[in-house]
């Protein structure tokens, strides 16, 4: 079992990682005997996990209600938030009710946001059930919903009081969903930790076969890296947290153009990282041999490294412009400088972007090691 | 001109109070030459004030958009928030856009909440135009909207970066709306400041006739009192801020039963304060001679001191129970102990509540000074 503490200002909360946590749930949840809890989950997960968890909690004298939302990114909307509020208000849930997010990033983002604004803020706990949520979405307090005019446009920073990561959840996850999470894992390694990248090269197969030790170590390292970032830059002001967007400016263009959910987030980010790496090559701040290492690792994880055939290079630009105009003050393009380190680049020309995207359009060849 | 600073944790913001501020607006707004601003106001106020303010700002090179909402408490809803988001996103407003709330408490609460959750939080400025908003709603960072199942149920704490109070706005305000604000002024005096209560007894007529000096002094004192409370208890955790709810548990019952907007907030609070005072008399912690002083002052301000004839005492209780269950952990009834001081009482019996409400049901007689 691994324990990590996220410290933000004066407050802090624990992340607990292990297999078999749920049979022992009560030991890990910061709940008291008479706590009142509302579990938020979806129609896919409720039949598998809800009954057991509810029984565990009931046995301890904890009052449990639940809200079961339809499954899917397209339900990460205000309507779902409002549905949660209806359930809370109809059941007279007060400010001392604690929400529990039981699900992937969608349920986590929704539940966290509902907690952020129900009666001006109540507590919540993350129990992430996808790999992507366990290594990324459940940590850091970014919460929110999509708006018809933009993804994640509405939200709040609101930290959970605990994150409980049980690797057993991953047993029922599809391999495609699992791979989507690996993309974010590789992202951490590229921008922050060469040694971890090396570890991934050694252990990617163990990870894919859900080896418990490999999983625990990998999740712990990702949580540590993210916790560090958040401790020093909770609200993405200082520019450290922004590095976590590596691959995302390109990736968002793919997700949006292809229609959310068709390309999984991690799949789009995988390609986005290569596009960012190619951009960095053009700017002569990154060497193609390193891009090759990233490509090789992504391919072993069964992740795409080429953009969708349907998308021309110029199809990316409007989305990237929009990202820039609407979401950041400047064109924030995170670019790698070597494996384990990245910077924020503020003005990449469209010409270079188009060239870099084109190199990942249909087939990414492993380039020869050209030393610059 | 009066200046007050609200200090919360490491950050602080100024409240500026004077007449004629708007002709000099630019001096008081923390905006830079190339700032981008979105003014949120309503259909009543836009024709009166919007053009002048926009011109002032444009002259300084500030880019100004606006959103004009329909007027009324019934539009303090998620739909209005979403309308603001549509305007922001359609016009590609980024995280550096500053919202300006130009209006009463409804516009202030809406704008503040939109700012709290647009892209996880952007800056906003309050320019309150009602007396109630100038002495209360615009200060303190409580923002939010109503839910069909409860008033102010959804929201966030989000402090503005500045509050600009121009007493000239009050010239166009109806006297009924003005009186509604006086109820909150009297509230401050009863719970915090006997001397201020005395000042009000001396100056209530000057206030009602909008004497500039009286207005400035009165608004300053209210802002100071509220700023002090907020500095030590921003999120209503320590129980000091909760004292500001004096009169509100009863008042909310009136507002909800009568249908929001039929009784103005301040009108309901005026009666609520008398009901709370009578409750305190029953508990022998407050003397009826002090209730009489409050009644006399409210009456001079043209505020009601009796509940609506339609409402039986038992009609209040379900709303008060609901307030208790849903909004606070305990039955928080704020009761005065003398003029200038109040406490939080945690368990008043229904019998006493009914008796106290009945005393304000149809006609509140000035009781004789019975010493307890
Ligand atoms: N808040 C953040 O910091 C952050 C970071 C990254 C991503 N996100 C958000 O997270 C979302 C993506 O998260 P996701 O990839 O977890 O998607 P998801 O929540 O949609 O889950 C993917 C699918 O797997 C199913 N599932 C979940 N757990 C399962 C299990 N144990 N067994 C079987 N099926 C299971 C879900 O029902 C769903 O169909 C996006 O909305 C993204 O914006 C947020
Ligand atoms: N956030 C807080 O701390 C806080 C505190 C108290 C009240 N509130 C909220 O404030 C709201 C009540 O505020 P309010 O009393 O200002 O009501 P309001 O905003 O509805 O304004 C009252 C009316 O006066 C009009 N008006 C405003 N300024 C005017 C002017 N200068 N000239 C002519 N007409 C003008 C408005 O258009 C409206 O019709 C409620 O929703 C209440 O919940 C919030
Ligand atoms: Zn991501
Ligand atoms: Zn009030």
TrEMBL record, chains A, B:
Binds 1 divalent metal cation per subunit. Can use either Co(2+) or Zn(2+). Pathway: Metabolic intermediate biosynthesis; chorismate biosynthesis; chorismate from D-erythrose 4-phosphate and phosphoenolpyruvate: step 2/7. One of its GO terms (molecular function) is 3-dehydroquinate synthase activity. NAD(+) binds at residues 71-76, 105-109, 129-130, 142, 151. The keyword NAD applies. InterPro entries: Dehydroquinate_synthase, DHQ_synth_AroB, DHQ_synth_fam, DHQS/DOIS_N, DHQS_C. Its EC number is 4.2.3.4. It catalyses: 7-phospho-2-dehydro-3-deoxy-D-arabino-heptonate = 3-dehydroquinate + phosphate. Residues 67-179 form the 3-dehydroquinate synthase N-terminal domain. Pfam families: DHQ_synthase, DHQS_C. It comes from the Bacteria. Its cofactor is Co(2+); Zn(2+); NAD(+). One of its GO terms (biological process) is amino acid biosynthetic process. Keywords: Amino-acid biosynthesis, Aromatic amino acid biosynthesis, Cobalt, Cytoplasm, Lyase, Metal-binding, NAD, Nucleotide-binding, Zinc. It is an enzyme of class 4 (lyase). It is found in: Cytoplasm. Residues 181-326 form the 3-dehydroquinate synthase C-terminal domain. Zn(2+) binds at residues 184, 248, 265. Gene3D superfamilies: 3.40.50.1970, Dehydroquinate synthase-like - alpha domain (1.20.1090.10). Its main location: cytoplasm. GO terms for cellular component: cytoplasm. Catalyzes the conversion of 3-deoxy-D-arabino-heptulosonate 7-phosphate (DAHP) to dehydroquinate (DHQ). Belongs to the sugar phosphate cyclases superfamily. Dehydroquinate synthase family. This is 3-dehydroquinate synthase. It comes from Candidatus Ishikawaella capsulata Mpkobe.
């Amino acid at each position: 079992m691994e324990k990590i503490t996220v410290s933000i200002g004066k407050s802090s909360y624990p992340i607990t990682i292990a297999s078999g946590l749920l049979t022992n749930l009560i030991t890990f949840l910061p709940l008291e005997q008479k706590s009142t809890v509302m579990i938020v989950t979806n129609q896919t997960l409720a039949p598998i996990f809800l009954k057991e968890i509810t029984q565990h909690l009931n046995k301890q004298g904890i009052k449990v209600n639940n809200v079961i939302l339809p499954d899917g990114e397209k339900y990460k909307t205000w309507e779902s938030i409002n549905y949660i509020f209806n359930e809370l208000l109809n059941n007279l849930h007060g400010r001392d009710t604690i929400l529990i997010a039981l699900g992937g990033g969608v349920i986590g983002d929704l539940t966290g946001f509902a907690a952020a604004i129900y009666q001006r803020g109540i507590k919540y706990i993350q129990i992430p059930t996808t790999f992507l949520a366990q290594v990324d979405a459940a940590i850091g307090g970014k919460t929110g919903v999509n708006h018809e005019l933009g993804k994640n446009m509405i939200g709040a920073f609101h930290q959970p009081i605990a994150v409980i990561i049980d690797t057993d959840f991953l047993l029922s996850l599809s391999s495609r969903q699992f791979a989507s999470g690996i993309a974010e894992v590789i992202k951490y390694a590229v921008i922050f930790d060469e040694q971890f990248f090396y570890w991934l090269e050694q252990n990617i197969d163990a990870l894919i076969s859900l080896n418990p030790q490999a999983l625990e170590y990998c999740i712990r390292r990702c949580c540590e890296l993210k916790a560090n970032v958040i401790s020093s830059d909770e609200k993405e002001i200082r520019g450290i947290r922004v590095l976590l967007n590596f691959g995302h400016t390109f990736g968002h263009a793919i997700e949006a153009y292809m229609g959310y959910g068709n390309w999984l987030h991690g799949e789009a980010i995988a390609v986005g990282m290569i596009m960012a790496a190619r951009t960095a090559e053009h700017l002569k701040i990154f060497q193609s041999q390193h891009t090759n290492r990233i490509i090789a690792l992504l391919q072993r994880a069964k992740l795409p490294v080429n953009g969708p055939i349907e998308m021309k290079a110029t199809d990316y630009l409007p989305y990237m412009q929009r990202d820039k105009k609407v979401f950041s003050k400047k064109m924030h393009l995170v670019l790698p400088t070597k494996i384990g380190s990245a910077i924020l680049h503020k003005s990449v020309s469209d010409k270079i972007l188009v060239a870099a995207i084109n190199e990942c359009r249909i087939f990414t060849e492993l380039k020869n090691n050209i030393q610059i």
